[in-house]
């Protein structure tokens, strides 16, 4: 396990270095002055500009500049947003939790719906229910998310009036920002309308979470179906069957556990996909997350925000990736011993 | 022992049951009350500041003037007569140059998170509020940029000689000359009263700019929280000097996108929506109501009279003749606007029904162009404003229609549009040839159309982007301001309108109506015939007894039709 951890850690460090190198070079590639792109200070006076130049070591070699940039990032200084002139780290800290909340709920939803359906399809391999589930998955996977989002708003918000279409919670509720994850903040708050706020927030998250969950859920269906078919064909299942266990016992005691391990490997990969979908969905549902913020920054040519936002978002996705790898390794001893490849 | 285990087993279930029942219990009771006591208003943009003295944008005054502040005097009733507000009465000397205001003595300022007032409103506050604008040496004049666009455009500093404090509750304005629109200017959304005590506290704390970002006023609501581009939260001012507001919380949900405002309205996420689209869809719904008010505004197509070919009067006339106004009104305003004959709306008392209109005549336009020496036509820029306003809901579409109209007389049009603040800045620099813009009156006095839009002085500080300057026209306006005789004033303004329609510095297109949509359970007046919105007497009825008032409203609508 130690070698495994060390390997992941070194992978993490090197990937982060490459990512910072990319965001560092973006400042040179974007139009405008490099140091202003780094710092985002568009209204700086001549003296302030000289200070910034000094702190980013702009008059020294490119390696010195890069190390100065790295030291700024490691101190949590991501520069100022060019449009709002407030520190980007603050803006990201205020917005990232909302994205994490939405993505996690959607991921959970996708797994809860996708994995059992995939198992059912595998158990009824090549029967009608298998075909129905597979074609539904194919259909769901091919629906574009922006279209689905608008359709969902039209049906559930406007025609039926069941669910709200925009935001994280009704503006009537004042919830103190503590963690940024709305549900936790509501539970921590001392508002007299706590439970009402909780149900309001739940109603708000249903539509966007379902829209995001659709595509990953269909992938989970196909992954879990393939995993289950593979497991069911394995020799230990045949042995169990030969021992006289009935199919219920075989599936619940042996097959599900072993199939799940294969799926967990893919959760990290799917999460990156899910965050991309979440960014588009945040725009449609006016969700106050980092995706919407990043897309707005692109519209407003806020270069500092774009490069820092990309850095933080990819770092976040990478951390989730590594975390799922750890869970996989903890559950599956075979993965830990593998010193080569992967 | 057995009983004991039973108890242990039962208790979690009991706890959960109790928990669930409290959850649902709270839920129902509170839900009605919280949403019933609050209004969510879907507004079209973020205010630039929380001090309406600093801006002429409708979005800013909507979010501030009548909610957070009061002015000395205010317009009352349907015929817009001036009535008391913070000043309970006033007296004007016979020469019209000295105006004395007697203030109410029971008005307190807001108590906010950073300010606790220790005294009531008095003459110092009034003097502070106006001296900040008038006196360039004043310690607060330069805070937030030092520009007071409304007051600059009416030349307030030239008009007011001084403001005197006669005693704690009496203030006298001394004017350099008699000006009949002075009182009207004091009753606008911009002439609000700030707290001098708060200003002093901010000076001591060395953060004077907070006077415009963390406002303290005397109005029916107090600013609680503001997040740029997201929302503004107001609480009711419980110690308001008039009857306090009927709702406890007012939230502005800032939704610049037209479609998202419509979606939120239909999904009941906002109670009231500004500038709604899809009017038919809204009137079809039983639980929604569409209302409109004919505003004192004008949407126009202006020419830069300093740049060729528009320095030639004939070209301006020809282009105006070639534009089919009625088609613009039918398409861009969806027939929800009145055709403009001149810059003054027909609803104004000074409007002269004899004003000649140029009309639509492409043949005559063509011959005028020939006389002017442009028989082969020419190409020109039309600058279309990028935002929607009541006076022009879609300038780009309008520009395209004008493009098609002008093509018929051989004039090629290129449509130009910039982001709003860039657009305004470049217009003021005179980079344009022609432009689509409009004007909304700040008070019902007719001068508010003539002077800010087309006078010579408005070329530098005001909104005269045609750069047109006509001595005769300016003299007529001066004469009209000096007299108090209404019929005499009307004659002067009629002559001024005749000059405009002859010289054609701009082609007035339409006087629009301002639309607003709301749930039928929201009662009370929000829209005023001019100026900003008010939520003072707005209340919400319970959703359960929604059906009966709905019928009443329908009947009322039929009767009025």
Keywords:
heterodimer; A: 342 residues; mainly alpha; 14 helices; 76% helix; globular; B: 561 residues; alpha+beta; 4-stranded antiparallel sheet; 20 strands
What does this 3D model show about the protein?
The complex is a heterodimer of chains A (342) and B (561). Chain A is mainly alpha-helical and 342 residues long. Helices cover 76% and strands 0% of the residues of chain A. In chain A, α6 (128-142) packs across α9 (194-232). Chain A is globular, with a radius of gyration of 24 Å. Chain B is α+β, with helices and mostly antiparallel strands and 561 residues long. In chain B, 36% of the residues lie in helices and 20% in strands. In chain B, α11 (313-322) runs antiparallel to α13 and α12 (325-332) packs antiparallel against α14. Chain B starts with a helix and ends with a helix. Residues 1-31 and 544-561 of chain B have low confidence and may be disordered. Chain A binds chain B through residues 84, 153, 157-158, 161, 164-167, 170-172, 174, 192-196, 199, 286, 288, and chain B through 22-23, 26-27, 30-31, 34-35, 38, 40, 225, 228, 230-231, 233, 249, 251, 253, 255, 260, 263-264, 266-269.
Tell me the fraction of residues in β-strands of chain A, as a range: under 5%
- End-to-end span of chain A in angstroms? 15 Å
Structural class determined from secondary elements of chain B: alpha+beta
Mean pLDDT of chain A: 86
Poorly predicted runs of chain B:
1-31, 544-561
- Helicity level of chain B, as a percent range? 25-40%
Largest sheet of chain A: none
Radius of gyration of chain B: 27 Å
Oligomer: heterodimer
Number of strands of chain A: 0
Evaluate the radius of gyration of chain A: 24 Å
Number of extended strands of chain B: 20
């Amino acid at each position: 396990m130690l070698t495994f951890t060390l390997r992941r850690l070194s992978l993490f460090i090197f990937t982060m270095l490459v990512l910072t190198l990319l965001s560092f070079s973006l400042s040179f590639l974007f139009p405008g002055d490099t140091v202003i792109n780094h710092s985002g200070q568009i209204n700086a006076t001549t003296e302030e500009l000289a200070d910034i130049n000094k702190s980013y070591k702009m008059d020294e070699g490119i390696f010195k500049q890069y190390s100065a940039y790295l030291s700024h990032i490691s101190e949590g200084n991501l520069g100022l947003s060019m449009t709002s002139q407030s520190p980007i780290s603050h803006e990201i800290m205020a917005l990232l939790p909302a994205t994490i909340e939405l993505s996690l709920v959607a991921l959970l939803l996708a797994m809860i719906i996708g994995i059992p359906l995939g198992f059912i399809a595998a158990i009824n391999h090549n029967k009608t229910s298998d075909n129905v589930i597979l074609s539904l998955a194919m259909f769901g996977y091919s629906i574009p998310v922006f279209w689905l989002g608008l359709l969902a708003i039209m049906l559930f918000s406007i025609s039926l009036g069941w669910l709200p279409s925009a935001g994280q919670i009704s503006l009537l509720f004042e919830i103190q920002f503590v963690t940024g994850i709305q549900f936790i903040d509501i539970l921590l708050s001392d508002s007299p309308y706590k439970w009402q706020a909780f149900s309001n927030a739940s109603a708000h998250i249903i539509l966007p979470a379902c829209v995001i969950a659709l595509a990953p859920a269909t992938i989970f269906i196909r992954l879990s179906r393939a995993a289950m078919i593979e497991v069911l064909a394995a020799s230990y299942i045949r042995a169990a069957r030969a021992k006289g266990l009935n199919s219920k016992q075989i599936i619940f005691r042996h097959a599900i556990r072993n199939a799940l391990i294969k799926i967990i490997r893919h959760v990290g990969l799917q999460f990156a996909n899910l965050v991309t979908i979440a960014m588009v969905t945040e725009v449609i549902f006016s969700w106050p997350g980092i995706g919407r913020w990043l897309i707005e920054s692109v519209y407003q040519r806020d270069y500092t925000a774009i490069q820092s936002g990309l850095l933080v978002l990819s770092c976040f996705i990478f951390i989730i990736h590594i975390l799922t790898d750890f869970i996989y390794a903890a559950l599956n001893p075979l993965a830990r011993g593998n010193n080569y490849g992967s | 022992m057995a009983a004991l285990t039973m108890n242990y087993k039962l208790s979690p279930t009991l706890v959960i049951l109790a928990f669930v029942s409290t959850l649902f219990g709270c839920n129902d009771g509170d839900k009605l009350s919280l949403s019933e006591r609050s209004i969510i208003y879907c507004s079209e943009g973020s205010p630039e500041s929380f001090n309406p003295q600093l801006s002429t944008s409708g979005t800013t005054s909507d979010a501030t003037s009548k909610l957070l502040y009061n002015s000395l005097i205010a317009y009352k009733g349907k015929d817009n007569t001036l009535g008391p507000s913070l000043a309970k009465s006033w007296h004007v000397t016979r020469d019209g140059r000295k105006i004395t205001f007697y203030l109410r003595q029971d008005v307190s300022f807001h108590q906010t998170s950073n300010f606790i007032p220790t005294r009531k409103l008095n003459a110092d506050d009034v003097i502070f509020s106006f001296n900040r604008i008038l006196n360039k040496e004043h310690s607060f004049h330069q805070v937030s940029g030092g520009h007071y666009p409304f007051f600059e455009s009416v030349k307030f500093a030239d008009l007011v000689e001084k403001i005197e404090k006669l005693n704690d509750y009496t203030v006298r304005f001394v004017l350099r000359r008699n000006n009949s629109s002075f009182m009207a200017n004091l009753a606008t959304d911009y002439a609000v009263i700030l707290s001098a005590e708060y200003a002093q506290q901010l000076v001591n704390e060395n953060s004077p700019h907070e006077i415009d970002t963390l406002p303290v006023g005397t109005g029916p609501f107090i600013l609680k929280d503001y997040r740029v581009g997201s929302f503004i939260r107001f609480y009711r001012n419980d110690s308001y000097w008039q009857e306090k507001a009927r709702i406890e919380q007012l939230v502005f949900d800032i939704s610049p996108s037209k479609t998202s405002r419509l979606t939120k309205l239909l999904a009941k996420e906002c109670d009231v929506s500004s500038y709604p689209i899809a009017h038919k869809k809204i009137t079809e719904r039983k639980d929604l109501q569409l209302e409109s008010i004919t505003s004192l505004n004008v949407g126009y197509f202006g020419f830069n009279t300093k740049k060729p070919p528009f320095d030639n009067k004939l070209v301006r006339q020809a282009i105006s003749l070639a534009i089919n106004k009625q088609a613009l009104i039918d398409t861009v305003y969806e027939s929800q606007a009145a055709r403009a004959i001149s810059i003054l709306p027909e609803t104004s008392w000074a409007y002269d029904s004899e004003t000649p209109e140029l009309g639509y005549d492409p043949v005559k336009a063509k011959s005028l162009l020939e006389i002017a020496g442009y028989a082969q036509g020419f190409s020109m820029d039309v600058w279309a404003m990028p935002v929607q306003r009541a006076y022009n809901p879609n300038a780009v579409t309008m520009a395209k229609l004008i493009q098609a109209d002008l093509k018929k007389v051989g004039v090629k049009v290129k449509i130009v549009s910039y982001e709003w603040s860039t657009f305004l800045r470049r217009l003021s620099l005179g980079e344009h040839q022609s432009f689509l813009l409009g004007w909304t009156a700040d008070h019902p006095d007719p001068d508010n159309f003539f002077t800010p839009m087309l006078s010579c002085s408005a070329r530098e500080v005001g909104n005269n982007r045609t750069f047109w300057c006509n001595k005769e026209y300016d003299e007529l306006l001066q004469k009209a301001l000096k007299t108090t005789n209404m019929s005499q004033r009307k004659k002067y303004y009629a002559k001024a309108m005749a000059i405009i329609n002859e010289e054609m510095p701009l082609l007035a297109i339409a006087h629009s109506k301002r639309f607003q949509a709301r749930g039928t359970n929201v009662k009370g007046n929000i829209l005023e015939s001019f100026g900003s919105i008010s939520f003072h007497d707005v209340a919400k009825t319970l959703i359960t007894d929604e059906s009966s008032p709905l019928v009443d409203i329908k009947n009322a609508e039929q009767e009025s039709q």
